[in-house]
Design brief:
The structure holds two protein chains of two kinds. Chain A is mainly α. Helices cover 72% and strands 1% of the residues of chain A. Chain A has a two-stranded antiparallel ribbon with strand order 1-2. The relative contact order of chain A is 0.08. In chain B, helix 2 packs parallel to helix 7 and helix 2 packs across helix 8. Chain B is mainly alpha-helical. The chains are: A mainly alpha, B mainly alpha.
């Protein structure tokens, strides 16, 4: 903590450096041990990334070794040899953790406490040799090599390093998507070229040919990008062609978004529909949390109110009241959610800060207990829920708009509208009042902002969008069950907003794609979805509290004292 | 936006002046209506239930005894919330999960003791086993909480409070799903020493129909709370904790190691939560990775009830909440003809939380600094 910690002599500095390297090794060791014990390695190893070469589980360990070695270089004394040594040491130490686990498993029955410490795991860790005899040192050797490789990577010149990292990323991403891509290409919509898919994509993961192809394409693209100085040219482009190319890129992205369900097939359509739904709800919470700074953990309450209202009005089953078409019922669902928002919001909005989070959490729980209780069973069906709800557009199973596809377009259109509305709202008098409240309630009140009214409006709008989300979910699923409405929905939406960037509209979109899209696409991830959320929330708050795609005000604010002065004039019309 | 405040803005503000006043009046009226409805439900419901004579005095005694056990457990957890809030002004969302981890540590200890045949060997062995379970649970919970403080909370100490709160929510999910990853989604049956389900053969206890379980739960909760209170009030470290929670910068100037005081706060709170986890296991038999969530939120409710940052308040609040949750559903709701009222015990607990937050945010025992702390 104090100045005495700065070493002066050369030896003392070297000792401190090696101590730093060892601590990196210990951390990396903790990480690999955690990956094994929590079950990520065993489950991920069922999914090959490159067929017969490497699985996702092996990769998770290898990547830890690699990044351990990579980080170690920064801690080690200067010089390539010291760097490589440091990387190897980190890999060795972290590999030793796994060796310890293997040895322990031969002595004690670990499975009583750790069900994941299975024979399959140890087979993977020892590369198939007998743990008791000669297998236990395998992780140490692999770690040593991996760590040294990572260190070597860090010592490469910048261009080469970027190339390797880009290639790794491309391999991982394509490896994950390979199965989906193959399935879609072989479905018959793409003609004869599609048959080539068999050579490139295995049923899960890339083939060796595909991997080599990926490396070649990625490397060429990188060389072209840097060799032709694309970025510098784009920057020096005159204003007019620059605008045209921006428009062209925008149109291309728009077309891609519209074509998503067709390009990706049924399964992807379902996923993008979920993403669109969460973008919509994230934009709603973005008003409450991002603009006004009210952490609302009871979002699920309004989601449920919207869903049940629409379900009751449209269902042709036992509990349906009117049998309205979906479109006619949606406004009622939104209004019901808003009314609930006002009724629940008014009493609690005088509360400051974190009390509000707990109070709204309580509301969420109250609503989800009530809808499955016997009290409301005669009207809401209790645990059996409400079924036979017609979709927004009546279709036959073979129509393009059947099922999730139409929901995708509906949700996308509504989300676009909400994005526009909240963009305009933020620049309005009300939006500026919200920002003022977020910055400092007392000052805002002193300047004439009516706290309760502004907060109620934010809360009410958030509730309205949650209700809309519920209505769309009902249209997507065709039924509602109380088990859908638990705290996890609120946490999902809050995580989308926080990770994307509080107060930032593009941030919500990025957040929804990362947090909702990825786990929906990969069932191995969805197993660890909330573990991942927890980690991401902690990491984001530690290293990037303003989010992945922050708004300008958010970036300034979240860094507290260390950032530039918050006394800068607040630009209300900023583009985020 | 500077310099752009057009006259239209001021005109709009002037026009809305009367509207705003009317709205404020409407809000006040709404809040009063809310109070009246709640009081009516409680009074009418209680009257109808009692006058129907459906429940004998024995039932009420059982409910009260159950509520005391529950309340003792809540109070133990609430102490951790209240101390951390007092010192850092943050809701330690992960506290409920630290409690759950304590319950699991106790479970594994108990399973081990049962497998070697010690758990039910003799009454003395059972008592030693329970003590051992509590010690292991307290140690494990403390380690986890201190690690979380070090990794997730300490680097954020100067950040906005929203950042800290979100990090705490992240920590909570991380702990919950780590446990899920390690032990799986299954429900684990706590090996409860058989002696605990035997009735207490003592003069007063017999008329109250107490089991040893109740005695152990309430007794150990009280013991922990008293020793915690003495620690905070009488020892040097306890004084340091109180000083830091009163005014951290000044305490630092007085030569108090603020970091150490904060770590101690987390450690003590987690140890109590670990013990509470064992009590939860003994009382409810079944635990899983999700067991910490609801008790955690409710214990926070108890802390708010008693006045957050206030140590005796957390004990009173915990007991009060335990009794309300145990007696409330039948007393308030059964008379109103609500089917299966015990399903709604959590609704009552959360309604209580909201009521306290609205109408008496400083809690039952009040607190001097409620304005700056709330």
């Amino acid at each position: 903590m104090s100045a005495s910690a700065v070493p002066t002599t050369v030896e003392a500095r070297a000792t401190a450096a090696w101590r730093g390297v060892v601590s990196v090794g210990l951390i990396a060791g903790g990480v690999v041990l955690y990956l094994c014990v929590v079950g990520i390695v065993p489950i991920f190893s069922t999914r090959p990334l490159i067929q017969d070469v490497v699985s996702l589980g092996q990769l998770s360990l290898l990547l830890t070794f690699l990044s351990g070695g990579y980080v170690a270089v920064a801690r080690a004394p200067r010089g390539p040899l010291a760097g490589i040594l440091a990387g190897a040491l980190v890999g060795l130490i972290s590999g030793a953790f796994l060796s310890g686990l293997i040895l322990l498993s031969t002595a004690v029955n670990l499975r009583a406490f750790l069900p994941n410490a299975s024979p399959e795991l140890f087979e993977l860790l020892t590369l198939g040799s007998d743990p008791a005899v000669d297998g236990f040192w395998v992780p140490m050797v692999v770690g040593l090599l991996g760590g040294a490789l990572g260190a070597g990577l860090a010592l490469l010149p910048r261009r080469a390093r970027e190339l390797v990292i880009l290639n790794l990323t491309a391999l991982v991403l394509l490896g994950l998507f390979a199965g989906l891509a193959r399935q879609r290409m072989l479905s018959g919509d793409f003609g004869d070229i599609a048959d080539q898919a068999r050579n490139v994509f295995a049923s899960e993961g890339l083939t060796v040919v595909g991997a080599l192809l990926t490396i070649a394409v990625t490397s060429l693209a990188y060389l072209a990008w840097t060799g032709l100085h694309v970025r510098a040219r784009a920057r020096s482009m005159p204003a007019e062609p620059r605008r045209v190319s921006a428009i062209v890129i925008g149109v291309l992205i728009f077309a891609l978004v519209l074509a998503m369900p067709w390009l990706g097939g049924k399964f992807v359509a379902q996923t993008v529909a979920m993403i669109a739904l969460y973008i919509l709800m994230g934009l709603g919470l973005n008003i409450t949390l991002g603009f006004a700074g009210l952490l609302d953990l009871g979002f699920v309450a309004f989601f449920a109110v919207g869903a049940y209202t629409v379900a009751l009005l449209t269902s042709t089953g036992d509990f349906g009241l009117l049998g309205l078409p979906w479109w006619a019922a949606v406004p009622f669902g939104v209004v019901a959610a808003m009314v609930f928002g006002v009724f629940l919001g008014l009493p609690i909005l005088g509360i400051r800060g974190d009390y509000l989070a707990i109070a709204t959490l309580g509301f969420g729980e109250i609503i989800s207990i009530l809808i499955k209780s016997d009290v409301l069973k005669p009207w809401l069906g209790g645990p059996q829920g409400i079924t036979s709800i017609p979709p927004p557009i009546a279709t036959q199973p073979n129509d393009f708009l059947y099922g999730p596809v139409q929901i995708y377009y509906v949700a996308l259109a509504i989300a676009a509208f909400i994005a526009f509305a909240s963009w305009r709202l933020r620049a309005s008098r009300l939006g500026r009042a919200w920002l003022a409240i977020r910055e400092d309630e007392d000052v805002a009140e002193a300047l004439g902002v009516n706290l309760v009214q502004s907060k109620t409006l934010a809360y009410m709008l958030g509730a309205a969008f949650a209700g809309l989300g519920g209505a769309i979910l009902v249209g997507l699923l065709g039924s509602v069950f109380p088990s859908t409405f638990n705290i996890v929905v609120s946490i999902n939406v809050a995580a989308v907003v926080v990770v994307g960037g509080m107060g930032s509209i593009p941030g919500v979109i990025v957040g929804a794609i990362v947090l909702i899209g990825l786990p929906e696409l990969f069932r191995e991830f969805s197993e660890y979805r909330y573990l991942f959320y927890g980690l991401v929330l902690m990491f984001m708050m530690r290293f990037r509290p303003e989010g992945l795609w922050p708004s300008r005000a958010g970036r300034r604010e979240m860094h507290g004292a260390e950032g530039p002065s918050t006394a800068l004039p607040l630009d209300a019309t900023e583009a985020s | 936006m500077t310099g752009q405040a057009t006259p239209r803005d001021y005109g709009a503000a002037a026009r809305t002046k009367t509207n705003e006043r009317a709205l404020d009046a409407a809000i006040a009226a709404f809040l009063w209506a809310f109070r009246i409805v709640v009081v009516l439900v409680i009074v009418v419901g209680s009257y109808l239930t009692v006058s129907s004579g459906k429940y004998s005095i024995d039932v009420w005694v059982d409910l009260l005894v159950g509520g005391a056990s529950l309340g003792g457990m809540y109070a133990l957890i609430a102490l951790g919330y209240t101390m951390v809030y007092g010192i850092l002004r943050m809701i330690n969302f992960a506290h409920g999960d630290v409690f759950m981890i304590g319950a699991f540590a106790g479970y594994f200890t108990a399973t081990f003791l049962k497998n070697i045949g010690f758990l039910n060997a003799s009454p003395l062995a059972s008592i030693i086993s329970i003590a051992l379970m509590m010690v292991v649970a307290a140690i494990v919970a403390t380690l986890v909480a201190v690690a979380i403080e070090r990794v997730a909370y300490r680097p954020l100490r100067n950040s906005p409070r929203l950042v800290l709160l979100i990090a705490a929510i992240g920590a909570s999910f991380f702990l919950q799903y780590t446990v899920k990853g390690i032990v799986g989604v299954g429900v684990f049956a706590y090996p409860v020493p058989t002696i605990l389900s035997e009735p207490v053969m003592l003069p007063i206890a017999e008329s109250l129909r107490l089991q040893w379980l109740d005695v152990v739960v309430v007794g150990s909760a009280l013991l922990m709370m008293v020793s915690m209170y003495l620690f905070v009030q009488r020892t040097k470290l306890g004084t340091a904790i109180r000083a830091v929670s009163e005014d951290a910068p000044t305490a630092a100037l007085m030569g108090i190691n603020v970091d150490r005081a904060i770590v101690m706060t987390f450690a003590i709170g987690a140890a109590l939560a670990g013990v509470a986890g064992v009590l939860f296991g003994l009382m409810f038999i079944q635990i899983n990775f999700y067991s910490g969530f609801l008790p955690g939120i409710k214990a926070f409710t108890a802390a708010v009830l008693g006045g957050i940052g206030n140590i005796p308040g957390a004990m009173v609040g915990g007991m009060f909440l335990g009794e309300v949750e145990s007696v409330g559903p039948i007393l308030f709701l059964d008379g109103l003809g609500v089917p299966s009222p015990t399903q709604l015990k959590d609704v009552i607990a959360f309604t209580l939380l909201v009521l306290v937050l609205i109408f008496r945010p400083q809690g039952i025992l009040g607190e001097r600094l409620s304005r700056t702390r709330a």
